[in-house]
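User: When convenient, might I ask for sequence and structure tokens for a protein?

AI:
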Amino acid sequence: MTEDLKQVADLITANTIFCTKEVLTSDETARYLGISKSYLYKLTMGQKIPHYKPMGKMCYFNRQELETWLQNNRVATADELSQKAQCYCMKGGAK
């Protein structure tokens, strides 16, 4: 019973640290984004995701920058596109 409580406490501590860290490792970032590490490496190699390499080898990621990156390229809803189309048609199309 005591060992189970210790494991639960350790898990809570690890999750708390993970949720409050500003700089994440590659493993943490992949878990945070819900992607595989290999896909994360593909994104970093293609310079498609913001990252840091302070010693030239290990990659680190800023949580705030990741959240901003995730919110790039928003896809409009069908209602928003319909509304844009209506406005475009009401103005007489491209002039």
Q: What stands out?
A: The CA atoms of residues 3 and 18 lie 22 Å apart. The radius of gyration is 21 Å.
